[in-house]
Amino acid sequence: STMEETDREAVATAVQRVAGMLQRPDQLDKVEQYRRREARKKASVEARLKVQTIQSQLDGVRTGLSQLHNALNDVKDIQQSLIDVNKDWRQSINTIENLKDVKDAVVQHSQLAAAVENLKNIFSVPEIVRETQDHIERGELLQAHRKLMDLECSRDNLMYEQYRMDSKNTHDMNLIHTYFGDMQKLSEELGKQLWMVVQRSLVTVRRDPTLLVSVIRIIEREEKIDRRMLDRKKQTGFIPPGRPKKWKEKMFNILERTVSTRIEGTQADTRESDKMWLVRHLEIIRKYVLDDLLVAKTLLDQCFPPHYDIFNRLLNMYHQALSTRMQELAAEDLEANEIVSLLTWVLNTYKSAEMMGNSELSPEVDVNSLDSLISQNVVDQLLSKYMSTLTSNIIGWLRKALETDKKDWIKETEPEADQDGYYQTTLPAIVFQMFEQNLQVAAQINEDLKTKVLLLCVQQMNSFLTRYKDEAQLYKEEHLKNRQYPQCYVQYMIAVINNCQTFKESIISLKRKYLKIEMEDTLSSSHTSMDATLDIIAKEGCSSLLDEVFMDLEPHLNELMTKKWLMGSNAVGTICVTVEDYFNDFAKIKKPYKKTMTIEAHRRVVVEYIRAIMLKRISFKNAEERKEGAERMIKEAEQFRFLFKKLAAGSGEDTEGLCDIIEAIAEVIKLTDPSLLYLEVSTLVSKYPDIRDDHIAALLTVRGDASRDMKQTIIETLDQGQSQANPNYVPIFKEITVPTLTVPKLLK
Length: 748
Fold this sequence. Notes:
By secondary structure, the chain is mostly helical. The chain has four domains: 1-102; 250-374, no CATH class; 379-543, Tetracycline Repressor, domain 2 (Orthogonal Bundle), CATH 1.10.357.50; 560-735, Tetracycline Repressor, domain 2 (Orthogonal Bundle). It is 75% helix and 0% strand. The protein has helices at residues 2-21, 31-97, 100-123, 125-137, 141-165, 170-179, 181-199, 201-207, 209-236, 247-264, 277-303, 310-331, 336-349, 376-409, 427-445, 447-481, 489-514, 520-557, 563-566, 571-586, 591-614, 623-647, 656-670, 677-687, 693-703, 708-718. The mean pLDDT is 88. One of its GO terms (molecular function) is SNARE binding.
């Protein structure tokens, strides 16, 4: 800094001077003398400096005093001037009051100036009105609006001047208003043209976008004038008639009405004229809304200023209008399939890629932020109505299906066979096709409804099968009244039995297809119950078919063990042919049931044969007859064995043992040595432990050579015997009763 430099220079000078003084050694003695001399010099310099400082301070004080003196004089002058002004002002007050007339003249002058300025316009009002009208008719909307604005501006300025001059003078105001009366009509006329364009904006934007842009510009101008007028009203209290016009608000209202009308207007048909009216109506709505929104997004958006947010406003309008329409439809008395169509559309189609979820509408439309078209409450009401309608429909359909099937049972033509040649009727296919259709429909709505419908189907199926069982029973009873009718009884009974298997398979496949694994338990008891009913129907059906066989066999069974039989009747041959003939039809029975039928037929033939022996219709006279009878029995057992082996072919069923019983009985009859009779009989009893005493007595009676005592002894001794029956042996004798009274000779 400067101070430091000065210090450095001072030190340098001092060093130089001291060096000059002390050049010789003798000068060192005078150091004290030099120091005193320098001290005197320094003191005199400091004294001079002090005097100078005081001098400059005194100068400053002198200047300050002179300035204060001047200021005092100035204040006195100002005070005097103020007194003079005050005096003048008091004298001028009266003069100012006399200037009011001038002020009024100025106001009048400014009004007259405005009038003069507008005079040209005022005189040309009728002509401008005509020109504006022409522009409107030619569709030159911007030019028409420009003229209209000029007219309104003239009228508003005149009115404003009138208002400023005398706000209470309504007569003059009305005069102006009336003079410009046609202008109001013009404004309405132009408005109509604008609203027509707005109504058709989605069409116009494709054909003539400039027209739409012109309309928006006019609306924007009007909005600006509205704002200006409202601001002036705040300041002056004056607003011209017909303001604010609020044309922007009106435009949105018209768009809203247009959207509503567009959606309502898509219903072309009623249920009476077209069963599919609702599906068609909803599809047209979907198409229109999607098309409109795509046009709005790609074209309309560019014609409107950004602050109109036109696309989102339109989106909301469509959503609202759709919501209203869907609620109206939901309130109608809809049929089950119509409820499904409506719910599928509302819950799925609306937000799908076919509509609001269309990729071309994103990102502006976010389906996740769209509200539901109808409330959950309404959805629940519709679903509950659907379930109750569906329940009564299913009951009706099942009843009708069974009635139709029953009509087939009495036809004179055989039932159809499936691709494997098994007889069947169309009942299972019809029932399950109906279930499938309803499940597919329910699945369109949601998982929960699908499960409910499946449970309903199963529940109704359960009661239906009970009715089916009763009908099959009635069918059998009717047939027994007259066995000639119906002609194809056997074939239709086979079809009923086969249907049971088809029903079982269909239930399983339906569950597999439509029921989630975790829901299995909800159906297991119903499933078990249905299977049980089906087994009963099939079992009763099989049993009634065997009854048929044995009713036809009855005369031939009655011939067994008679004189005629012994003489060589062909009863067993006929029995075998008849059974085989029936089993040609029974081949059309499905596997599990057919196998049971074969076993049961085999068993019943053997039972009937043994029953014929126990009826004691013959008593052999001698060993010769016994031998002949026994050999015939063995031969016939072989015939049965051959027949049932043939019928059971491929089923792997071993029923050899049944015919062995006949052979074992034949051995007892054939025996020539009566002393061995006890042994032979005891062997028979140990093999077949359900043989009763009366069976043995009957057998010995047929042999014809055992006395009463002998029978008694054999029977009493047998009671102590041990059985050694085959564990697979199914008791057969317990079904056979022995007549106690002597049987009248049936055949002479």
